[in-house]
Amino acid sequence: MTSSLALLGGEPVITHDGPHFSWPPLDEQSEAAVLRQLRHGISIYDRSGVIERLEDGLCDYHGVTHAVLTSSGTAALHSMYAACGLGPGDEVIVPAYTFFATVTPLLHLGATPVLADCDESGNLDPKDVTQRITERTKAVVVTHMWGVPAAMPSLKAITDEHGLMLLEDASHAHGAGIDGQRVGTFGRAAAFSMNGPKPLSAGEGGFVLTDDDEVYSRVLLHGQYNKRCRNELPRDHPLYEYAVTGMGLKFRIHPLAASIALDQLGRLDTYLNARARIAAHLCERLAQLPGIIVPELPLGVRASWYGLPLQYATNELDGLPVERFHEAVQAEGCREVDRPGSTCPLNLLPLFQRPEALFPGYAEKLNYAPGDFPNAEAIHRNTLKLPVWHREEDRLLVDSYIDAFRKVTDNYRHLLG
Ligand SMILES: *Cc1c(COP(=O)(O)O)cnc(C)c1O
Q: Residue with the nearest Cα to atom 14 of ligand 1?
């Protein structure tokens, strides 16, 4: 029996060479912004110039009191946890399914991460969180996976009931929200990344948001020592005497990176609205195919679409393995279809199975194993991730990705056996 599938020697659907997707969208306006900053100054020690403009812009966009820019999302998470007082003896409930940097800063602070499973959406399961609360639990950290907001109303109800801090890793969920409330504003503080592919990009960078003056002061003490602390900590703050050294870490963002992010922030909502249209189109078409389950957004939920996480249902294609399906769509030219690797259930990573070689003292606290988080592992195993384009001129490419998926699901029988 012959087949036209490219994996079996047929013609691929997509022959278009060159990158299919690139982010962030930089143009002459972005170049001019960077050049202006380059001429103006490339070291800023206090909250002035482009640092002040970007922090003010982030506060306005999110409707919060304080923003602190950092050198990365990882640094923002580290400062946020330190500022919230998480340390030895504290248990912090974190998603098992997240990017590892959601959790690794806690190890540097001596706190104990307690992993919790996700629900069928891939986000933290409120029911599993409840089961993992002990008298040592101090905080719950939420990631909005692939830019789809987690179940914040339920999670907030749980943390309120138990007197726990709610913290967000909104690293790739800029502009996402629930009923008009943006992610990053639900808990005591939130951390974001502005790394290259993130919806709001500085190339490298991050920030912390909070309405809490004390958290703000302590974020400054953690990673923004000397001038910012001297200028911004209240004179009568009990820790003012430490302003010069703070805690001795330097997590400042580069002003050129800040100038890129400031330029991008002005266009973020335009990009996100355009992504939402293309995501809706992809979901509408791909949902019709057997073996493909698309994410469903409850009414009132807005995603940032850092990626479009599809679930592959092997049972709908007579057991065709996900690896084989992935190979087949890649052979059709869909080079952007990804099975995420480093973003995986944390219990599959050596650091969370036997951390003691790198973090002495954690041998008893972290000894997870494969099989510990069945939902996260099943979701991870069956995830096929697409980028979400935003330009109208990409519509043809988007439709050829849909055609390629349909070609494989129409002809999957040739791949069996
Ligand atoms: C990107 C990301 C981080 C880390 O941010 P960096 O800027 O790369 O340090 C942390 N958590 C999540 C969920 C991320 O997507």
A: 171
Question: What is 167-186 written as a DSSP string?
Answer: EEE-TT-TT-EETTEETTSS
Q: Which atom of ligand 1 is nearest to the CA of 75?
A: 9
Domain that holds residue 336: 268-415
Say which DSSP state 243 is in: T
State residue 417's pLDDT score: 75
Model pLDDT for residues 173-214, shown as the tens digit of each residue: 999 999 999 999 999 999 999 999 999 999 999 999 999 999
CA of 205 to the centre of ligand 1 (A): 10
- What pTM was computed for the model? 0.98
Q: 204: CA distance to ligand 1 center in Å?
A: 10
CATH number, domain with residue 238: 3.40.640.10
Residues 6+ positions from 342 with CB-CB distance below 8 Å: 99, 100
Q: From the CA of 142, how far away is ligand 1's center (Å)?
A: 13
For ligand 1, residues with CB inside 6 Å are: 72-74, 98-99, 101-102, 143, 169, 171-172, 193, 195, 206
**Pair (187, 253) in one structural domain:** yes
Distance 133 CA to ligand 1 centre (A): 26
Among 265, 291, 321, the domain-final residue is 265
pLDDT mean over 350-370: 96
pLDDT at 2: 56
The alpha-helical segments, DSSP class H, found in 226-300 are 227-232, 255-265, 268-286
Helix 268-286 and helix 395-410, axial crossing angle in degrees, nearest 10: 20
251-303 pLDDT per residue, tens? 999 999 999 999 999 999 999 999 999 999 999 999 999 999 999 999 999 99
159 shares its domain with 69: yes
